[in-house]
Fold:
Amino acid sequence: MPRLTNGELEQRIALLEAENAALRDRVVEVPEPSPRARSRAWALLSAVLVLIGVLLAPVAIVATWVRADLTDTDRFVSTFAPLARDDDVRDFVTAQTMVVITDAVDIEQLTSELVDGITALGTPPRATDALNALKGPAAAGIRSLIESRIAAFVRSDAFADVWSTALRVTHRQLVATMADDPDAAVRLGGDGTIGVQLAPIIDAAKTALVEQGIGFASQIPTVNRTITVAQSDSLPAVQIGYGLAVAAGIWLPWVALAFLSAGVLVARRRSVALIATAVLLAVVMAVVLIGLAVGRALFVTSVSPGLLPTGVADELVERVAGPMRDTTIAVLVLALVVAIVGWLAGPFDTPRRLRGLATSVSARLRGFGEAHNVTTGRVGEWVYRQRTLLRAAVAVLASLVVVLGRPLTVPLIVWTLVVAVVVLAALELVQRPPAVVVVEEYDEVEETV
Structure:
């Protein structure tokens, strides 16, 4: 390759510099985002994720209740079977059953025909007048006898068994109730009414009356009549919501938990994010509890006493909304527990001092034990080496118990927390840190002679 002269080299260098300048002009420099801008973006993402999870939590509670209490036969029966032993419900069923029987059987006419048949046999005038005068009291007495028999049956264990059996047999059709299946024991009308069919109760009452010697009770027909126990214009929308809730009952709680967890994980200060998320969730659960209480009061006061007695309406709402209220309380308690645990484990001054105090107390107790020849030996040394893993295992197991426990209750949360604290305290006492050897170092002074 021929050697270039100084002039040619200068020209070549000038040409290259011109090309570099042209390339630099074409390049669009993208400013690198500042650390503050990046932190704000992550904080915004964390807030959005947490907000979505918190808003999904109440919906997840409703969906879980719908799936657990309305699709599980045993839980459904255990929820609504106690209604058969409520005095208000018993009185209401007795009254409605009497209305159906008196509508189907004219007791006054039957009594009158019986008296007329007796007088037609040729009774004396005074006896005939006496018998005619007894038509009204006799009819009233028969009506009172029938009512007393029905009331006795409704308050018996046999009625409770009939009620439970009817619930269990028709539970398969309860889902179809939301689709207005005409064969369901509990039916939803197109106008938003909730009705209970009286046919099984009338048949059982008729059998009991015949067994007691009231022969004409056999003439009571099987009436397929449905009594209205509640009415709400929003029930057709509830049918749609029911189908969505059943479909979402399995995965929606996990989706809400995933959003909450992701919101905490992407936060720059995770300990603060965990506490804030738990407190916000507790506030939302408190609002839900207030909403349930207000909704219960509005429902009870809006139902006409002529349609449904206040005591029956209140007991019905308790059976329906009680499980949701209990779950909401449990989630609220769990959120407060998580907030407290997150604060105690966080990098804050007061929790650090508390943790240091606990460590100091444990060290003194271990020292007292070793002074009296009570030591955990190699087991304690192994526990000390694996202390981080063991603590994490306790936290994971406690979390799994709470997350997978069904139903979620306050006692489950409290006992899980107590057991976890006891296990962690036991690990702290059992562990045996290595002995600390203090070495005093002295500076050597070399004297130069």
